[in-house]
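Quick start: what a row looks like.
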Amino acid sequence: MRLKDELPVDHHLATVYRYGAGFCGLVLLVFAGLGFADALSPFDTGGDTIVGMSTNVALSAISTVVGMALLAGAVIGGNFASVLNMTVGVLFVLSGFAHIFVLDRPANVLDFGMTNVIFSFVMGLVIATFGMYGRVSSKLSHDNPYWQRRHPEKAPPERASVSALARREAGDAPLPLRRTEG
């Protein structure tokens, strides 16, 4: 049994993953488009700033690829979008750390400035949060498929109780009696 098969197609978490991936993908595409509009040389490290961040064509190309990947994740949705969001979010945070060490050095081929590093950290955390929403928490609801996966011993009785309540509300069957130990 795979967890991706347990998440219903219309589960509300899938909507969060889709919108998160789509929103962050659009932000990156807008930044890339503004970078391309400036038409700098690919690895120019003395370019203009766009929305307070320095850029060049190489950074715009990377932003386009990542933005398109996030939009593809938004179209596919479900657990794919969640995993993609978490992966891209972690890569953004790692990129921020890597670029801290190359600021004002010849190895800074993407022309990162401190504002780019801060953006990389913030965007990475936002994207990762969209991906982890409903998956990582100490207070997941018991109908959450991730909670059920982590607590298999408690999940079947919970499912039975919920389905019995649904039948009871429909007037089909009485609630099952539950034995108490003690």
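That is the whole record. The mean pLDDT is 76. The helical segments are 3-6, 12-38, 57-76, 78-102, 114-132, 145-150, 155-170.
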